[in-house]
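Q: For a teaching session next week I want to show students how multiple molecules come together into a single three-dimensional assembly. I've collected the sequence lines for a complex. Could you give me the predicted structure tokens for the whole thing so I can convert them for display?
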Amino acid sequence: MSLALAADAGLALLILGLAVWTTIARTAFGAVIGFMAYGFLVALVWVRLAAVDVALTEAALGSGLTGVLLLGAAARLPRDAAAARPGWGLRLAAGVVSAAVAAGLAAVVLLLPVPGPTLAPVATATLPTLGLGNPVTGVLIAYRAIDTLLESVVLVLALIGLWSLARDEDWGGRPDALRAANPGAALVLLAQVLPPLGLLVGVHLFWTGAIAPGGAFQGGTVLAAMWVLTLVAGLTRPPRVGGRGVRLLLVAGPALFLAIGVAGFWLGGAFLAYPAADAKPLILAIEAALTLSIAVALGLLLAGPPGARE
Amino acid sequence: MSSVTLFGLCGAALVGLGLFGLIVQPGVLRKILAFNLLGSGVLLLFGVIARRGAAAGIGSDPVPQALIITALVVAFAATVLAVALLRRLVQETGRDSLDTDG
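A: Of course. Below is the structure for the complete assembly, covering every listed component.
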């Protein structure tokens, strides 16, 4: 067994251990902590699978922002909320079904065709004409641009869904769920020192995404995290949900993406096609607007519905 | 066995664990966590398929990679909605489980 395989086996065991802990932990709070640690280790697995772009997203979003969300939810749950657990019979049946599903998937993994099918050559063929060096960004913004467009709209839809859960009397107010009741001095200091650096990291991730791992999602997530930090510390307040400016920022990314996509009918001959001469500037404009809109959407999603402070 | 196969088996086990937690855990927050584990296992399987599709000088097929990034963002949005529904449930009923009796 080589050293790399041994390290990977250890990583896989740690992940499975944390997943078991997340499933069976006594308290919801403990389970959430386990899940956050799990997310960071899964980010390492993505690096081992040569998917650094995914690793960045997993660490920032899958573990970081999701962790903040779930910790907040766990802290607000009623204390003695232990509902009746299902009996042994149901647990045994669930165990058998889950084991069967896992075994079936494991068999599929072992029986995958060699060599694996790939779209890499097709997806990277157009990269030079687009002026991009990062194949993942190329897929997101050109080869499968329609997925990315719909996905940026999904964030806005999720926010509409979240806001519609507000009580009628709270509508139009500020979402205040994130602000800590008594932010300690250390938290306030962190929220003053870290955001300038985080801002640089976020913008760098967006800018470097054209040629290296990074891009609109990773950059936007880091920017959102910095905003959320200042919200938690009470240094900034979330905007009123009825405000015109915040709504404009939210739709700027998807709207510009859609506009350039429609313009592709005339400029490039198809929906979401880029004209060969100006592909790079157009892509940069879309990515910049998307980064901003994603950051605002993620921050507002974490901030909760208006008037959520309990 | 290669590392890639190992992580594939790990993903399969995660799907099973997530499914088990989704059925067995009574609390809604625990169900949300289990659902996230399940989704994470599915994405890991997809990532293994991407790694096996390494070609054209890239270590991992970029098409699945891009879809996984999209999936992570959508999973976050879905989790936000689920948590918001849970908090409304607690506000309205004072309970955090879906039991209708008792």
